[in-house]
Amino acid sequence: MSQEMKDSMMGAIENVIDPELGIDIVNLGLIYDVELDDEGKAIVTMTLTSMGCPMGPQIVANIKQELMELPEVKDVDVNIVWNPPWSKDKMSRYAKMALGVR
């Protein structure tokens, strides 16, 4: 998969906002990896801010919706992993500033 494709997938996912924090899930550092196989199946490896995150299913649905808008993507599979665990260190500088995290 080209870096350009990876960038456009990450760009699409940046439209998905964490409803509790109001920041997109890419800047929050929740997306660990994106791949696209030869059949056009997008595979997203991500985590959530907490194991009991009630917004998990909504976030996954939004990721699928955004990625399906890319012409190369025919199907989307989202894998939620808890390892490595998410921490504030994974947030971008932008997210930390927006949330007042140091």
From TrEMBL:
It comes from the Bacteria. InterPro entries: Fe-S_Maturation_MIP18, FSCA_dom_sf, MIP18-like. Residues 9-79 form the MIP18 family-like domain. It holds the Pfam family FeS_assembly_P. PANTHER family: FE-S PROTEIN MATURATION AUXILIARY FACTOR YITW. This is FeS assembly SUF system protein.
